[in-house]
Specification:
disordered C terminus; binds 2-acetamido-2-deoxy-beta-D-glucopyranose; 7 helices; Immunoglobulin-like; 5-stranded antiparallel β-sheet; elongated
Length: about 550
């Protein structure tokens, strides 16, 4: 704005002083891009004359000898690139000015008197990396072109407040980047920018006014440290051996998102030898993929401009193990296959490391695993990116008979003719094979009967017992390989005489109560008579009012 006004005023003044005709440019400023000795120079100035057809000539003169070193015509451009060769020496004091020609008029800018060697203007620094943690912002900056140690000025502010500044110098060293650590308040977002300045030869460049700052780097927003993304429960869909998952995660806070947040996913959904798949960094906060029935792991790292969160690992557990299933199918198709197998720890749990192979077949592994121990296997296939589990089963290389009988065998609900036997199922590790059923022997009075009960049951009602008889119950599990040891318990049925049904017991109680009432009533009536109407000869009491319960219970069959 100010510029425009100035130009306008100049235009006015020029047109007024038409006679002058030629208005000089600003005095030139010259610099080179680095302290390197082979660097060329650039001189720039600003035109003040709006007229066309003006030509500029840059003059450089030895200040002491007053001899011209060079002059160069730049046409109507307001800058001139000067080759080092044209200058020769650069470490002496020189006068530099711009002569402007308009028509047959010429005019000179004011002169500057400088040592060109001391005029170094670096490019504006670039922040290559920012990392914020625990109140410290660590900055990495590109080195200046000459890799020299330099002086920086950094300034920072909370949004819409005053800049604060500091300067620092870097060391001459072989590191590839300059770095700086700035202390900031933890929970505040900032803006920062930097500029830099060459460190010049002290004997030559005593005049500190000559040292030039680079331009400021662009203002950069500094967000807060990013926190671990909170991953929402996944929506799952199961079809024919494939699980479709859709992960979504929460948006980080606005303070963390300044300057953008992106996510890196590392996906491990194929159990066979294949490195983790790294997804391209994404801005999306959802991820959709298909996985097998086996365990899958996906880890997500959120990254903003000042760093990355720790990885959030999501483990999608394998589907519940089957306890039994048909023989593995004979799968011989051209898809990429993956066989995965493991020993079920304590008979049921997946261990943390599992075996897998893309080449072996089920037959290869079946005989190799430990005998009498339940293992589990999956067969997965991959077609393009579609993963599918075509088989999953528990298996044994060889089955054995159970090594234990069922635990906690208990008899309850004993009557004169029945009882209920219950037990705890044999733990899988002690079954040592697939349990076919339980065998229950009931022995009493020299007779033994045998029952088979399904392997998933844990109680059985024994019927048709004789009253008052003692029995022995033996119970054992059986696999393909044979019977396990017995767990045994004894009991005695109730005798029939003792055994009153609850109806009988109720009737008995009612009778006793009735009898007691009868006695109390008759006593009470007798007392009443003798106290209230001792000498009245004829009793006038209505017998229907004081009725003895005797009449009521008279119907009952006691
Ligand atoms: C300084 O560097 C800039 C950008 O790299 C380039 O355009 C310019 O010509 C260079 N100036 C000199 C004097 O080398
Ligand atoms: C500028 O110079 C060219 C020839 O050099 C001439 O043709 C043109 O008319 C001039 N323009 C003005 C505004 O003087
Ligand atoms: C400049 O040139 C013009 C013609 O192009 C002429 O009329 C004028 O007198 C000249 N002025 C000077 C100072 O030489
Ligand atoms: C510009 O400066 C040079 C050298 O000092 C001088 O010879 C020339 O006359 C000057 N021109 C004007 C218009 O002042
Ligand atoms: C901060 O900036 C002010 C004004 O530009 C300046 O006077 C002061 O020296 C600077 N402080 C530092 C430490 O650079
Ligand atoms: C599952 O597979 C069967 C047979 O291959 C097919 O008929 C059925 O449509 C499939 N179900 C789904 C949901 O894909
Ligand atoms: C994933 O689930 C979210 C909600 O849970 C839904 O908004 C989104 O559309 C789903 N993405 C896909 C690709 O189905
Ligand atoms: C497996 O499949 C092949 C070809 O499909 C067949 O010849 C073979 O008998 C099958 N084996 C079993 C055990 O089913
Ligand atoms: C034992 O009998 C009671 C009722 O008399 C019944 O509720 C319970 O289920 C029975 N227990 C068993 C194990 O059958
Ligand atoms: C053995 O059981 C059978 C059939 O229940 C029965 O007929 C027989 O009397 C029993 N023997 C003894 C000694 O109880
Ligand atoms: C045992 O499995 C059979 C089917 O195989 C089922 O009908 C029965 O209800 C199961 N019993 C228990 C106690 O789960
Ligand atoms: C379990 O008891 C039954 C009946 O008493 C008997 O026949 C069987 O041999 C016993 N089994 C073992 C392993 O002792």
């Amino acid at each position: 704005m100010g510029m425009r006004v100035a130009v306008l005023l100049l235009v006015v003044s020029v047109s007024l002083t038409e006679a002058a005709g030629c208005i000089p440019t600003t005095s030139p400023w010259c610099y080179k891009n680095s302290t390197l000795p082979e660097e060329d120079f650039m001189c720039k100035w600003e035109k003040r004359n709006p007229k066309e057809n003006q030509t500029h000539t840059l003059f450089i003169r030895d200040s002491e000898k007053k001899s011209l070193i060079m002059c160069a015509n730049s046409g109507d451009h307001s800058e001139k690139y000067i080759l080092l060769e044209e200058l020769g020496i650069t470490s002496i004091n020189m006068d530099i000015w711009v002569q402007t020609q308009v028509g047959n008029l010429t005019c000179n800018s004011s002169k500057i008197s400088v040592i060109l060697e001391c005029l170094v203007k670096y490019s504006a620094p670039q922040i290559t990396r920012m990392k914020r943690s625990a109140g410290t912002l660590s900055l990495k900056l590109d080195k200046p072109k000459d890799n020299k140690s330099v002086k920086y000025e950094i300034r920072w502010r909370e949004r819409s407040s005053e800049w604060k500044n500091a300067t620092f110098e870097t060391e001459d060293s072989k590191v590839i980047q300059d770095s700086y650590k700035l202390q900031l308040q933890k929970q505040t977002i900032y803006q920062i920018q930097l500029r830099r300045q060459a460190k010049l030869q002290p004997h030559l460049c005593k005049d500190s006014l000559q040292t030039l700052w680079s331009d400021w780097s662009p203002v950069v927003d500094v967000p807060l440290e990013i926190s671990l993304p909170l991953v929402r429960p996944l929506v799952e869909q199961w079809t024919n051996g494939t699980r479709h998952i859709n992960l979504t995660w929460d948006e980080p806070s606005a303070e963390e998102s300044v300057g953008g947040v992106w996510y890196k996913l590392s996906v491990n959904v194929w159990p066979c030898e294949k490195p983790k798949r790294k997804e391209k960094p994404t801005l999306d906060r959802t991820y959709k993929t298909s996985i097998t029935y086996s365990e899958a792991r996906i880890s997500i790292i959120a990254t903003n401009k000042v760093g990355s969160s720790p990885p959030r690992e999501i483990i999608i557990p394998a589907v519940k193990h089957l306890s039994n299933c048909d023989k593995p199918s004979n799968f011989t198709q051209d898809y990429q296959t993956c066989l995965e197998w493991y020993k079920l720890e304590n008979g049921e749990t997946r261990p943390s490391t599992v075996n897998s192979s893309g080449k072996k077949s089920f037959k290869d592994i079946e005989k190799g695993v430990e005998k009498f121990v339940r293992h589990y296997y999956f067969l997965h296939i991959m077609r393009k990116k579609h993963l599918q589990t075509v088989d999953m089963c528990p298996f044994y290389s060889e089955q054995g008979a159970p090594i234990k009988g069922p635990g906690n065998v208990n008899i309850s609900n004993v009557t004169h003719e029945s009882a209920v036997v219950s037990w705890l199922s044999i733990p899988v590790a002690e079954q040592r094979g697939f349990l076919l059923h339980y065998l229950i022997w009931i022995s009493g009075q020299g007779n033994t009967t045998l029952h088979e009960v399904q392997a998933n049951e844990t109680s059985f009602k024994i019927k048709n017992l004789h009253p008052g008889t003692s029995y022995t119950v033996s119970i054992a599990g059986e696999t393909m390989a044979g019977k396990g040891p017995n767990s045994t318990v004894n009991f005695e049925t109730h005798s029939e005489e003792m055994g009153l049904s609850w109806q009988d017991q109720t009737i008995l109680i009612v009778c006793v109560v009735a009898l007691l009432c009868t006695i109390i009533c008759s006593v009470a009536v007798r007392r009443f008579r003798s106290k209230l109407i001792p000498k009245v000869p004829s009793p006038v009491i209505d017998t229907s009012e004081i009725r003895c319960p005797q009449d009521q219970v008279s119907n009952t069959n006691c």
